Amino acid sequence: MYPVLFQIGPITIYTYGFFVAIGLMLGISIALKQAKRDGLDYQKILDGAFYIILAGIIGSRIFYVIQNFPLYKSNLLNIFKLWEGGLVFYGGLLLGIPVAWIIIKRQGFSILNFFDLFAPSMAIGQAVGRIGCFFAGCCYGLPTQIPWEVTFTHPQSLAPKGIPLHPTQLYSSLACFIIFVILVSFRRHTRFTGELFCLYLILHSGARFTIEFFRGDPRLWFWNQTISLPQVISILIFTTAVFLYVYLKKNIQYKISK
To answer: How far apart are the C-alpha atoms of 95 and 52, rounded to whole Å?
Structure first.
């Protein structure tokens, strides 16, 4: 589509980087407003979010480069060009969660409270960031002839040019936006700490597993190319989140009954 948002002399603003930045700022602002309502320490939340987001970006980039290493092996410096596109959410999640655990424990917060606070923010941040993926052409879909197919023509696009493709970036964006609405609507009805975060993981992993069937960009495959690495991770996250949900629900009921 339009990988470059605008250019002023030597300064180039990439559309991908712009939307990712907007998504991050929107997500953080929503979390901070909720933190104020909950009476949490604003500055500690902001400090923790900075390091967790940094870890998430690093993990996301590492995961993307591993999946697309042939694109970078001839020029390793391109690995650091994040603004051009190329982050994988699960990589960020896998590195971000342990970093979050360490930082949040040091600050004295409940890990589940913190994740509940940021669950809607992660969803809306992804919803906006995926629009950047669409403009950059990364995370593209399989060839198709559906009425809403998209064809990338820009020479800097990361997607194949001149081929009608599934707009999987927009599928993901819409799915994350719906998850955000569900989480915000459900927040006031939660029954135990960690429920909102578990719900986010269940909904997101289910959506990601489904959308993977329409993805056409390079991925790591298992079992004779019947299931991709992101789908394997989706299954693991979905299963873990369901077990955690059941455990936390039973645990809180036990406490109430006592």
So the answer is: 9
Q: What share of the chain is helix, strand, coil (3-state, %, to 5)?
A: 70, 10, 25
Helices (H), the chain: 15-38, 42-67, 89-107, 111-136, 168-186, 195-211, 229-257
**Contacting residues for 148 by C-beta, under 8 A, at least 6 apart:** 167
List pLDDT tens digits, range 66-111: 777 776 777 777 777 666 566 676 677 778 778 878 887 777 778 8
Q: At 110, list the tokens.
A: 């409940």
Residues 219-244, mean pLDDT to the nearest whole number: 89
DSSP of 52-66, one letter per residue?
A: HHHHHHHHHHHHHHH
Tokens (6 digits) for 156: 């800097």
Q: How many CB atoms neighbour CB 30 within 10 A?
A: 19
Secondary structure class of 152 (helix, strand, coil): strand
Measure the CA–CA gap between 189 and 170, rounded to whole angstroms. Answer: 29
Q: Which residues contact 132 (CB under 8 A, 6 or more apart)?
A: 15, 16, 17, 18, 19, 20, 23, 85
Nearest-angstrom CA–CA distance, 184 and 179: 9
Rounded to an integer, what distance in angstroms lies between the CA atom of residue 3 and that of residue 134?
9
Query: Is residue 203 within 8 Å of 241, Cβ to Cβ?
Result: no
For 25-163, strand residue ranges (E) read 150-151
The span from the CA of 90 to the CA of 205, in Å, is: 10
